Amino acid sequence: MEFRRLTDRIYYSMFDKEADRPVLGYVSGQKYSFMVDAGNSKSHMKAFHEALDKEGFKRPDMIAVTHWHWDHTFGMHAAEGITIAHEKTNNKLKEMAKWQWTDSEMKKRLETKVEIEFADTCIRKEYSLLSEIQVVTSDLSFVETMKIDLGGITAELHQVESPHSDDCVCIFIPEERVLFIGDAVGVDYYNNCFLDKDKLRSLIGAVEGFDFDTCVLGHAEPMSKENILNIMHSLLNRQENS
Length: 242
Ligand SMILES: [Zn+2]
Description:
Helices cover 30% and strands 22% of the residues. Strands 1-2-3-4-5-6-7 form a seven-stranded mixed beta sheet. A hairpin with a 4-residue loop joins strand 1 and strand 2. It contains seven helices and 13 strands. By secondary structure, the protein is α/β, with parallel strands linked by helices. The radius of gyration is 17 Å and the shape is globular. The structure holds zinc ion. Zinc ion is lined by residues 67, 69, 164, 183. Residues 67, 69, 164, 183 line the site of zinc ion.
């Protein structure tokens, strides 16, 4: 796993398109270390732990997820610290924790459009044994916002309106001027890739309000505030029939 330095106290591991593994973030406080997103499996979490061990960094004391999608949450059961999610995220995870992970049940969920093709394909790539899938809710949950003092550095969790999913959380690190944005800038794959422009407008307002230089995205290279706002504005101006 490739581990990259963003600032003195913020690192991340790269996304991997093969089984849709997202970027995982790491914030190093004097007291606590903090991880953004839990990865898509136990082995994704393990690879992250090993990358930290290799650098001599402490394994995360706290792990917060940005939204419910499998690639960001299915590694949560393998976390060693305290896990944190928005209440809406946990509601969805609670529902998914009851799902059975067999070939036939997964096919049924595709037929009934409970699950989407892309997630099904990637889940099958990540898990050679479907029975290893474990979905859990987080230890702590919050609504709206949560601030965590990590020791000399703060993690601010903010629920934002997003066209990607109803439970999106952005994590702002004011001291380093970094915003973890997850997949918030994206269409809703669970609703025929619908782009809700009202929600996008609301997200643009929220992102403009954070005082950051760099944002970290779930499945792309980090980018400047100017770039992410340009992307959001071009999405907003997209012609739906083109
Ligand atoms: Zn997502």
